[in-house]
Design goal:
This protein is an alpha+beta fold. The chain has 2 domains: 5-133 and 308-359, 3-Layer(aba) Sandwich (Aminopeptidase), CATH 3.40.630; 140-286, Aminopeptidase, CATH 3.40.630. Helices cover 41% and strands 26% of the residues. Helix 4 crosses helix 5. Keywords: Transferase.
Amino acid sequence: MPGKHVVVLRPDELGPNDQKMWREIRTESGAPANPFLDPAFTVAVGQVRPGVRVAVLLDDGSPVGFFPYEVGVLGRGRAVGLGVSDSQGAVLRPGIRLDARRLLQVCGLSSWEFDNLEAGQEVFVPHAVEELASPVVDIGEGFEAYTRRLRAQSPGFLRQTLAKERRLVRQVGPVRFVYDARDPAALRALMEWKSAQYRRTGRRDRFAQGWITGLVGLLGESEEPECRGVLSVLYAADRPVAAHFGLRSRTVLSWWFPAYDRAYAKYSPGLVLQLRMLEAAAADGVETVDLGSGPARYKESLKTRDLRVYEGAAVRPVPGGAAHWLGREPARAARRFVRNRPRLSGAAARTLEELGRLRGG
């Protein structure tokens, strides 16, 4: 990269000026203020995963870009928080042009894997193998404007959800919603419900991984306006029946870990919570709620539009790059094959659920 210099740092070595420049460059680029691409997220992940690094791109001694990544054996790299991060990529001043493989070489990486690369990442999009839809809800004009649109596009969905909330009140007790709760018991309940859901559907339990529970704990205590955890809880008769832990910046809220108590499933408490959360978030200055990639019927009902995100990997022609390809690409190709065939995808989901049920006894 002629004329430029790269310094690789641990996240805790980023100074206040580095973080300030990181945010200024994000703002200048016009990208959404997604909390996953804020420096505070990289710093938090760095506290629970020792392989996190940040390549700082300097031009005449001034930062013009930041590339956060994790590095493992044989130089195999991945996006920071891969598997739980919903927005990934490099933070570059407009007009900066880089070659992905050259950047990896400078960072000592043989590959860099991503599964939610944001649109506009010109350095890495050519290395994507799949483009995915990531639905979002626009609430910048206020919740009332949003519900008018929701009634027009999904009238049955809104009517039925509100009716279930009224039934919950009648049959269980008074409903109370807290947008930004400080309730450790509710957070523990959320993790238990979510773990049970992962096991029930035959998927890997994220909350069985210590670094993820540690990360949630750190972000839940954060006071950083551009990246902090928000625990929203729906109570019925003063008992938590649904909860969501997400990340927010000043204007973007990322839908991250939602779950509910299955004993109240007939009332759809997760959907009730989501509508209440959208209302509270709009009143709190949030303009966009990012629902994240991955198919779900409720996302189709709630969304106002789709963002594009990308999955893939930049790979250098070195032994570590070959190891990445052999270890990841065949499985990724198999997932794409299934995901792009709805009937096969449905059968796979049913099989995972049955395996989860058998494992759970």
